[in-house]
Write a structure and sequence with these properties.
Layout: H1 2-41, E1 45-51, E2 62-75, E3 78-92, H2 94-98, E4 105-118, H3 119-129, E5 136-141, E6 144-153, E7 156-169, E8 173-183, E9 186-187, H4 190-199, E10 202-205, E11 213-221, E12 224-231
Antiparallel strand pairs: 1-2, 2-3, 3-4, 4-12, 5-6, 6-7, 7-8, 8-9, 8-10, 11-12
Length: 233
């Protein structure tokens, strides 16, 4: 009877010891990540989930699996509808984590971020940064990103359509580069394309993340853009 009671006590103590990290350490790190990344992204809502089988890994700054989702974020003045960050085997500096309560990144076996930017958000940035009179508007589709509208040139109204490409710069920035210019289906001198390119220069810097990531792919969809980041190799 005593032996059986001892076994039960040992099992209870073992379960308590194994459960302590998941009960106390895991929620704390999730809150710190939610606070730090949520602040960097200026997001309305941030959800963080850490998957750690035992929880003791966290004592040493090791995060087996991290998933973060942020809604209505703001990056470089651009409203981002959704941010999905994921990571495998992330290592943080344990001293900074527990003594200074700072999340100091060391490395990770896998790290990625997906951003969804809507057409409306791109136009808000365009009008705020380069076109306060809202003469032109961006239209996003799988075929490309068009800039269209009406401009007054030489005392005349011109209905224009400009096809552009999204160009990656410095790993974390995305620039809208004009490629073709048409006016009422008639091509006009390239000098006007150059003038428009200079005045409608739109560059977005996504380098807000405290991790070494860079743009890997850009997918054009109906009325939105998906920007995919991966770890720097």
């Amino acid at each position: 009877m005593k032996r059986r009671s001892l076994i039960i006590v040992v099992m209870i103590l073992l379960l308590v010891v194994l459960g302590v990290p998941r009960v106390f350490l895991l929620p704390r790190i999730e809150r710190e990540l939610q606070k730090d990344l949520g602040g960097d992204l200026q997001a309305r809502a941030v959800q963080v989930q850490i998957k750690a089988p035992w929880g003791w890994e966290l004592l040493f700054g090791n995060i087996p699996r991290l998933e973060l989702t942020a809604h209505d974020a703001v990056i470089d003045g651009l409203r981002v509808a959704c941010v999905d960050l994921y990571g495998e085997q992330i290592r943080l500096d344990p001293r900074s984590l527990w003594q200074e309560r700072e999340l100091v990144y060391i490395d990770a076996s896998e790290l990625g971020v997906d951003l969804v930017v809507t057409e409306d958000s791109l136009n808000e940035l365009l009008w705020s940064e380069v076109d306060p009179d809202r003469f032109l508007r961006l239209a996003v589709s799988p075929a490309g990103v068009d800039l269209g509208g009406t401009l007054s040139l030489w005392n005349m109204e011109w209905n224009i359509t400009v096809r552009g490409d999204l160009e990656v710069r410095d790993g974390t920035s995305l620039a809208y580069v004009l490629t073709t210019f048409e006016v009422e289906e008639t091509r006009i001198p390239s000098i006007l394309l150059e003038v428009l390119s200079e005045n409608y220069d739109l560059v977005i810097d996504f380098g807000v993340f405290p991790y070494p990531i860079e743009i890997k792919d850009v997918f054009l969809e109906e009325q939105q853009i998906l920007v995919r980041f991966g770890g720097v190799s």
